[in-house]
Amino acid sequence: MTDVEWWRHAVIYQIYPRSFADGNGDGVGDLPGITARLDHLADLGVDALWLSPFYRSPMVDGGYDVADYRDVDPVFGTLQDFDDLLAAAHGKGLRVIVDIVPNHTSSEHPWFREGRRDRYLFADAPNAWQSLFGGPAWTQVEDGSWYLHLFDPAQPDLNWRSPEVRDEFEGILRFWLDRGVDGFRVDVAHGMIKTESGYFDQEEVHDIYRDWRKILDSYPGERMAVAEVFDTTPERVARYVAAGELHQAFNFDFLEAPWESATLRRIIDASIEAAGTVGAPPTWVLSNHDRQRHVTRFGDGVTGLRRARAAALLMLGLPGSAYVYQGEELGLPEVLDLPDEVRVDPQWIRSGGAVTGRDGCRVPLPWSGDAPPFGFGASSWLPMPADWAALTVQAQRADPDSMLNLYRRALHLRQPSGTLTWRPAPAGVLCFESGGLLVAVNLSSSPVPLPATPLLSSSPVNDTLPPDTTAWMPTPPSS
Ligand code: GLC
Fold it and tell me: How far is the CA of 73 from the centre of ligand 1 (A)?
């Protein structure tokens, strides 16, 4: 597993451990559940897994509230289970990156419990900052002072000007690197430094990543890190992946793009250009554990699914690296009708139900069988829709036209690529060459001529490319 700069062209599959597979039958996914299902991922053809947090946590924010960064929460298993998962994944040629949550700890972290105020952001009086989960970003404690939490009050923000905080996180990186992880996904990577002018994307945050990069580079193999940086421009995001800092950053502009050709083309160009100015690979993502699933985002029923199939071949046809969120390879829709009483997302709870929150994209995966919980385990912590029987891995394996087989074929055909060349196309159609493929995406409402016979298409084609369809073709010999 030494191929040089593997991350430049990797397809990385995001696992939300709580909802992937339940090994011990308690209704919550866990690490042994993942290990038992690795063949699904190896067969799918992804290069690496990113595991959302599985550390000790009171689970106020689904594990993004960490109480012990060096241990596995009992609900997910043990450190031995993690080592077993890592070894099994590596044995199948799959790399593993883990989530690191440096902006805040859980309020159950020993530092917060022991009143180590120098390591958090306490003030005598709050300012006007609002929490991203709604309400004020400050909570008052017994002595009258206030602490900052950009997210839930159970997630106090750390003071990154404290040398102890910096040392601790370097130790945490080393702890997981020593165990053999291939890298990290950095949660809220633009948030750690706060100044008078704000809390996102402050200059000093880059010092942290220059230190972290040295640590990553001091390990054998190609250890990488991907930054979660949101609410800013591609140019600002690129600064996190400049020489001497991190390797990749998520592309939220692509994730948020409407199904519309001119906007997509503009975002694709801007993303490639911004990453290119610093020598980093562009990345692409359609869904994650925080956003409404794209099958639902792209339209109702048949339309949403058809566009999601076309979007998959667009994303996987682009140069650089792509992120696939668990369940998108099954075409899972957002679950919109979860009963109020099962919802646990702090966005929902803190807004008093005004914000629906993210539970609907975190419903456990359907693996097999005809009725919930569809082989996920003996039960599931969020209820699964009864009509997911046709969406199980088992059902889709048997269907050559399933979303699962589309992703599988695409991942096996996909070639590493660093460049994209646009080709002339009718209005509403994107056409480009990348990685030895000619990719045409019809976002218009009429069929258009096909330049060549497809190797793969997202919906059936005859001699035209129908609306909401992507085709992969061999590149013409003349080009
Ligand atoms: C990131 C995570 C999200 C979490 C938040 C606070 O945005 O992706 O799930 O709630 O950070 O840690």
Answer: 18
